[in-house]
Amino acid sequence: xxxxxxxxxxxxxxxxxxxxxxxxxxxxxxxxxxxxxxxxxxxxxxxxxxxxxxxxxxxxxxxxxxxxxxxxxxxxxxxxxxxxxxxxxxxxxxxxxxxxxxxx
Length: 104
What we know:
2 helices; 6 strands; globular
């Protein structure tokens, strides 16, 4: 089990993301990703429980998820999402250690 008591390890991921919910959309950054979730940083808050769609630019993949938490961080909001969707994991298999170097 990961040292911070999370069920799944998180990997850093530098990627622009587009987050959509209802008729709203905003652009932000992915901070990290795990087997069933991600942490994204966006300029507006999203209520807990809202269904969102996240487009990860680095993979050109869209991921359906649910907001689990939303906290203000400086002038942004850090939004934690959960998704049972395996599409992104299929695209990232074996590349976890290269996210930052490919994007940096």
